[in-house]
Write a structure and sequence with these properties.
Number of strands: 0
Largest sheet: none
Shape: elongated
Amino acid sequence: MDNIQTLDQLKNKYYGEIGTPERDRLENELEVLRIGYKIRTARESLNLTQEQLAERVNKKTTIHFQNRK
């Protein structure tokens, strides 16, 4: 059990410490995913489609996020 690492330890190992460009990019992408998941969960709990939610918030266009490399 000596080789067990926390998520933060693994992120430090593979993406660098907090404050480095690669780690900051990872943390930002994870936050975007968290927000999207929260919106989706709330929308689904209200039994709304994406289109219905867009109408409720007066949003006409769709936003697509791309993974940047």
